[in-house]
Amino acid sequence: MNWDIGIMLMVLTFLVIAIDVIFIPTSVLTILSVFSYLSYLLYVYLEVSKTGALILLALFLGLGGGGIYFVIRYRWWQIISHRKPLAKDETFYQSLDHLHGKTAQTLSELRPSGKVLLSGKRYDALAQSSLFIAKDVPVTVTGTSGSQLIVKPLP
Q1: Pairing relation of β-strands 113-118 and 103-106?
Q2: Which residues, including other chains, have CB under 8 Å from residue 115's CB and lie 6 or more apart?
Q3: What share of the chain is helix, strand, coil (3-state, %, to 5)?
Q4: Is the pLDDT of residue 146 over 80?
Q5: Residues 97-113: tens digit of each pLDDT
Q6: pLDDT at 85
Q7: Which of 100, 110, 125, 138 could form a cystine bridge with 133, CB 3.0-4.6 A?
Q8: What is 97-153's CATH topology?
């Protein structure tokens, strides 16, 4: 048995897994890594002929090339990884400071954190001074902490 093909299939499997985990997490690459590993197992343990192993490798490379082409051509990585390009005027972090002083409605109990509804949008909120605030209570925004609004009940 030629171990060079078996080792090549195993290295290819680990390479595809590394690309899948580090760079482009997609189900296409995961399926291809499983197929590559199965071709390795068939070749090494079931002693498939060298021709059979090369056919499996060609099938793997054909499916892999086709899958990668479709992922790149139709921008599937954005759908799969839930990424969309930012507009020119957008930044990744958007400040919530402009909401200071606005009135919101609690969607859940704040013990001390929960959700509030403000201008039709849901926000994570933190009750000021670790207060307990019941559900469906009007609150006012007193500040922000990262991506959370700091709120207190209306008097």
Answers
A1: antiparallel
A2: 106, 107, 108, 122, 123, 124, 125
A3: 50, 20, 30
A4: yes
A5: 889 999 999 999 999 89
A6: 61
A7: 110
A8: OB fold (Dihydrolipoamide Acetyltransferase, E2P) (2.40.50)
